[in-house]
Design goal:
41% of the residues lie in helices and 13% in strands. By secondary structure, the protein is of the alpha/beta class. The protein starts with 16 loop residues before the first helix and ends in a 12-residue tail after the last helix.
């Protein structure tokens, strides 16, 4: 290789900083206007095939003008966002983000901090945000925690600590040291990421006992106790109960106080998956129902859901900070702390989780809470709950709509039911109705199956939603429903060639 002294050296900073500044001003102006008027745009729109083709082109080898790159973003990427920044988006459980959160991510990108090691401001912000998260949950101040990408990693992290704490030496010797197969317990409504967590920590999904639920989709406590006793009699080793603070299907809250009593009696770990519902603890009407969170061994929740933060940021908290650290801490030469200098900062956060490379996700939480304060977030969560109950009432008032589960928090599940159709036909009808509503950009609820019934599911974790948006969705449900019935009568829409799968 030629290392001639006269070979020009290169870098990746802009050749013309003034052009870059001009682009920055244009970008901020455009995005502020875009968010300001987001409600006037479709809630979602399909991506045209020609755009998909553009996004399948091979890697570029030569540079492009920065203004051209931005223009391509505006043309081929921005219009086809997932929808969750729109006020009529209620699919899955996705937060809306805020303008300040977007600015925070821009600033975090400029700093480009690896928030795991070093005496740098980002490490102290991260620690402060964890302390704030403990305050949100009224969790013990001596507890511990970690910011992670989301609920899936939060739940996995919690179950790793639970396994290593309940089964001594399992961190180094593996599951072989257990006196029998480890078993964990959750309701049949628990999120699939807990299945994955069971697989990742080595117990296998077959040892994750899915306990039946009652008519309110809450875990059946008698069935849980019976399964625990059966497993112990058969030589299994129960080590963890996972309670739901808001199931993804219906928002159901398990009887967490009863689960806490059982966990303490059985001397096993209680983890609470509160991906979005744990934050309802900020609302007085729900604080008592969620009070057991304060005594749980661990709790997982997402700030990018019901705290409306930009993706991605979740949190897992532990009552026992020592158990948390012991589960992950290792001593390696290249992470040795010093008395001073950049290695003289806080303890490396890799001692509290799997990652050694972590972005500055705490900054958007810090700036957002500084901007609005906790009380406003509590009021926003309460508003979303009120909106879900309002939607449920609107559904119940219309004879062609059917509420498929009682509204208990921020999720409403319903379907269009004109009568004179069997369940299979209703499933096909509502599936097509949902897709047409989404494709027309009217609203974006998602779907689920409740007792074999296809449900249009609205989970409201959206700070831009107003009641008028819910009224529009209800009206569109009825209008498209009528359209489909008319098409069926004209044999344009046929139940016999579609499936509900």
């Amino acid at each position: 290789m030629n290392h001639a002294d006269n070979k020009p050296e290169i870098g990746l900073d802009p050749e013309n900083w003034d052009d870059f500044k001009t682009l920055g001003h244009q970008l901020i102006d455009d995005m502020v206007e875009y968010l300001k008027n987001i409600g006037d745009k479709p809630a979602w729109q399909p991506i045209p095939q020609e755009v998909k083709a553009e996004l399948q082109k091979p890697i570029p080898h030569k540079p492009s003008n920065i203004f051209d790159v931005y223009a391509e973003f505006k043309q081929n990427i921005l219009p086809y966002h997932g929808g969750n920044i729109h006020p009529s988006y209620y699919a899955w459980v996705q937060g809306t983000g805020t303008p300040m959160g977007a600015f925070a991510d821009l600033l975090a990108g400029i700093m480009n901090a690896n928030v795991t090691i070093g005496d740098q401001s980002a490490m102290y912000v991260d620690k402060q945000v964890i302390n704030w998260c403990k305050q949100l949950m009224n969790y013990p101040t001596e507890g511990s925690g970690m910011l992670v990408s989301g609920g899936s990693i939060a739940n996995i992290t919690a179950l790793i600590v639970a396994r290593n704490t309940v089964v001594a030496n399992s961190k180094t010797k593996g599951l072989y040291v257990a006196e029998g197969k480890l078993t964990a317990y959750c309701s049949s409504e628990t999120h699939n990421c807990v299945n994955k967590a069971a697989e990742v920590i080595g117990i296998g999904s077959e040892q994750l006992r899915k306990i039946p639920v009652n008519e309110n989709f809450e875990i059946d406590v008698d069935s849980l106790i019976a399964k625990l006793n059966e497993d112990k009699a058969n030589g299994f080793v129960p080590f963890c109960i996972i309670g739901n603070a808001g199931t993804v299907n219906t928002g159901a809250i398990d009887p967490l106080d009863k689960l806490l009593t059982i966990a303490r009696r059985e001397n096993i770990w209680l983890h609470i998956d509160g991906a979005f519902g744990a934050l309802a603890k900020l609302v007085p009407a729900y604080s008592e129902k969620l009070k057991a969170i304060e005594q749980a061994d661990s709790v997982a929740f997402d700030l990018h859901k019901w705290m409306y933060m930009q993706y991605e940021v979740g949190c897992v908290l532990f009552k026992d900070a020592v158990a948390h650290r012991v589960a992950f801490a290792n001593t390696v030469n290249y992470l040795t702390a010093h008395d001073r200098g950049i290695a003289g900062g806080p303890e490396t956060l890799s001692n509290y989780g799997m990652e050694l490379s972590r972005g500055f996700k705490a900054l958007k939480v810090w700036m957002s809470l500084k901007e609005h304060g906790m009380d406003k977030y509590a009021a926003m969560i309460a508003q979303n709950i009120d909106q879900a109950f309002y939607l449920g009432e609107q559904v119940k008032q219309h004879p062609e709509l059917e509420l498929l589960a009682a509204v208990n928090m921020n999720v409403a599940c319903y379907r269009y039911n004109p009568g004179n159709l069997d369940n299979d036909q209703l499933n096909i009808l509502n599936r097509e109705l949902l897709m047409r509503m989404q494709e027309r950009g009217i609203a974006v609820p998602s779907n689920t199956l409740l007792n074999g019934k296809y449900a249009i599911r609205a989970a409201i974790t959206n700070h831009r939603t107003r009641r008028m948006h819910l009224d529009q969705m209800v009206a569109a449900t009825i209008e498209i429903g009528h359209e489909l019935i008319n098409e069926h009568e004209a044999k344009l829409f046929k139940f016999d060639f579609l499936t509900s799968k």
